[in-house]
Specification:
3-stranded antiparallel sheet; globular; binds copper (II) ion
């Protein structure tokens, strides 16, 4: 389980965009976005670096820990 802090999350649209971006990488991924906490919990076989890069492309770069 990958849990990313994504400061750009602000609403349900962001949650959908993030979910769709991850599903493009891995159709079997499970994505849970918490809009209030600005986090995304992602269960996927995709490489974490690939997920981060894809989300950054989409305008939701994960904060580095
Ligand atoms: Cu939004």
């Amino acid at each position: 389980m990958l849990t990313l802090s994504i400061p750009a999350i602000s609403c349900g649209h962001c949650a959908r965009a993030i979910t769709e971006a991850v599903l493009e990488l891995d159709p079997d991924a499970r994505v849970q976005v918490d809009v209030e906490r600005k986090t995304a919990a992602i269960d996927t076989r995709a490489e974490p670096a690939a997920v981060s890069a894809r989300l950054a492309e989409e305008g939701y770069p994960p904060a580095t820990a």
